[in-house]
Write a structure and sequence with these properties.
Histidine-containing Protein, Chain: A, 5 helices
Length: about 200
């Protein structure tokens, strides 16, 4: 038959490939190539751990008799907790830091809290909400900023930026955008570079 030759060639090629593959199995593993250390992105496990830490810190702050604050922002990156917001007294700041340090998994706490000062009016609170919205919109519109990693709070015109970003350039750019927002009277830039 005329088909015997092509089929035989296919069978021979397949057999040869199988023998080469089996022979490769007996080969000793090659040592890995030395490569420079690479900064790896956060793993899903680390992100979950950070979310658990953030939740634990928020719960502890709300449950504390002195702090009792839902107004504080909590960001966590690889166990480092950053607390921001406005409180009524230095005692609340000190207690918030103490409470946060006691939460399992926290490796460090960065303080970005400020004292409220005098009480504002309903009009001031509405104006602050507008400023916060403008700053968030400016951050989201700029391609050089990852605004989801930035928390924005405003109190009596003072804009506070907290969170973790990739570089000093992003910190500077976010600060310029926030300061330029209509109604922003001052800026407290507490952004940190991701480790």
């Amino acid at each position: 038959m005329t088909f015997d030759c092509p089929i035989r060639n296919i069978l021979l090629a397949t057999s040869f490939t199988a023998l080469v593959a089996v022979g490769a199995c007996d080969k000793a593993p090659e040592p890995p190539l030395a490569s420079p250390p690479v900064t790896t992105p956060m793993t899903l496990g680390t992100q979950v751990d950070d979310a658990v830490i953030t939740s634990g810190v928020k719960s502890a702050l709300v449950a504390d008799e002195l702090v009792k604050s839902m107004d504080l922002q909590v960001e966590t990156r690889q166990g480092v907790v950053q607390i921001s917001g406005y409180v009524d007294s230095q005692a609340q700041i000190d207690q918030a830091l103490t409470v946060s340090r006691s939460v399992a998994g926290v490796t460090d706490v960065q303080n970005a809290m400020s004292l409220k000062g005098e009480s504002g009016t309903v009009g001031t609170a509405l104006a602050d909400t507008s400023v916060t919205g403008r700053v968030k919109a400016a951050l989201m519109a700029d391609p050089g900023i990852r605004s989801f990693d930035i928390s924005v709070l405003t109190h009596q015109g003072e804009v506070q930026l907290t969170g973790f970003v990739d570089s000093q350039e992003q910190i500077d750019l976010a600060g310029r955008l926030a300061a330029a927002a209509e109604g922003a009277s001052s800026l407290k830039n507490e952004l940190s570079i991701k480790q």
